[in-house]
Amino acid sequence: MPAADSATAITYRRDIPLDPAAVARVFDSSGLKRPTGDLARIARMVENANLVFSAWRGDELVGIARSVTDFSWCCYLADLAVVRDLQRAGVGRELIRLTQEVIGPGCSFVLISAPEAMEYYPKVGFEKLDRGFVRWRTQ
User: Do the beta carbons of residue 23 and residue 42 sit within 8 Å?
Assistant: First the structure.
């Protein structure tokens, strides 16, 4: 059964099929830079994540938390996006809470932040780290 937040009439769902065009609209509205012109790639991104929470206002997709996890040691939050008019309404915070609830306390919850969101994540319980490495995508 979907969880509902009565204050904003938002419903949250786990691991349901998502329309790539709707996901792209959320990314574009949120300001998150993703390859939204390539809907096949957006579809693969969602289909290959193994933990996806979505937020809905009626039939409209308004938020997504897309993660890859082993449900035991670590969970990588690949995307957290909320449409602009619902940012600061608690939707992102709830998507994070739902993800954390599923992965449990024995699983590290990690992410790479967009530059614009660097101040957001400490406010929702993430610790900034100075160590880490990445090989950035080339396309």
Answer: yes
Question: The whole model's pTM is what?
Answer: 0.90
- Return the CATH number at 28: 3.40.630.30
- Cα distance between residue 128 and residue 139, in whole Å: 27
- 138 lies in some domain: no
Host domain of residue 62: 3-123
| 97 is a domain residue | yes
The Cβ-side half-sphere exposure at 14, using a 13 Å CA radius, reads 16
Q: Which residues of the chain have pLDDT under 70?
A: 1-8
| Domain-embedded: residue 65 | yes
Contact yes or no for 128/120 (Cβ under 8 A): no
Element (H, E) at 68: strand 60-69
Place of tokens 């390859």: 35
Tokens found for residue 7:
């204050």
How much is the pLDDT for 105?
Answer: 95
